[in-house]
């Protein structure tokens, strides 16, 4: 099973409080030490749109980009690609949407325009030996348009695959999906994109993320995105809460008999580390169930 940790990007992009590069690097160091092997480290987007990601080049400069751990970064256009490559990025992700309104609000482009923009980004990245991941946002619902047709998600996912994306991450950006709606969407998408190249990216606004992951797992999906401490949200999707917490996903996967290579206790300590840095408790139940006991120990 593969977990793509998105906390340092999806998690921190939506925090009002901007964290220093040193704290971001310590977060990523701890996530790496817990055994995670793909950790989204930043985004080369406009700092006017998402100021929290402005220091992404500095973050990459502090990481070992040549080792076994992948540190992908988001790239919306060729300008972002230039900056990401200059910073030494070894993996990038382009991010599109299945909703026209969300696409406009998030990246100031229609779906068709965004795919046109991604084409040279993907081609140039691949020519440089940099693998490209693709996101589709609003795969179940959109904050502006409501329900999204599974056929639209399948169409955008197939286009991203055609551009050369090695994996397509299906984002329930506002967390409105339930197992039934998610599986209906997955059935449509998996007709054109093999299940082995699909990932689930669930936000937990309605508390459905773990149920949705369980349903996708049973349907054969093997890659899930998540965020330590359940951090996150999308600045262009008002009311969307954080990603499903990585510690909850790891607990589910281990309970289902899968291995992840992640040390749950170290991950929970990391959840508390970042929660303390942000001055708010972790969103996951697990961080409290396990973490409270671990934190209480020194005082006993
Ligand atoms: P735009 O305003 O249309 O861009 O924004 P533009 O090309 O017209 O350029 C305008 C200005 O932006 C110029 O600067 C450019 O230099 C600058 P100025 O001359 O005004 O000083 N600019 C850039 N600066 C830095 N890096 C760049 C870049 N490109 C242009 N790459 C743009 C278009 C795409 C740039 C903007 O809309 C943007 O940055 N959007 C990013 C929004 C974002 O990051 N959203 C969150 C991530 S998506 C997400 O969270 C969902 C996901 O988790 C999955 C899920 O949950 O569904 C992935
Ligand atoms: Mg997201």
TrEMBL record:
Signal peptide start-end: none
A GO MF label: hydroxymethylglutaryl-CoA lyase activity
InterPro entries cross-referenced by the UniProt entry: Aldolase_TIM, HMG_CoA_lyase_AS, HMGL, PYR_CT
Top-level taxon of origin: Bacteria
Catalytic EC class: lyase
Gene Ontology biological-process annotations: ketone body biosynthetic process; L-leucine catabolic process
Keyword field: Lyase, Metal-binding
Name of the protein described by the UniProt record: hydroxymethylglutaryl-CoA lyase
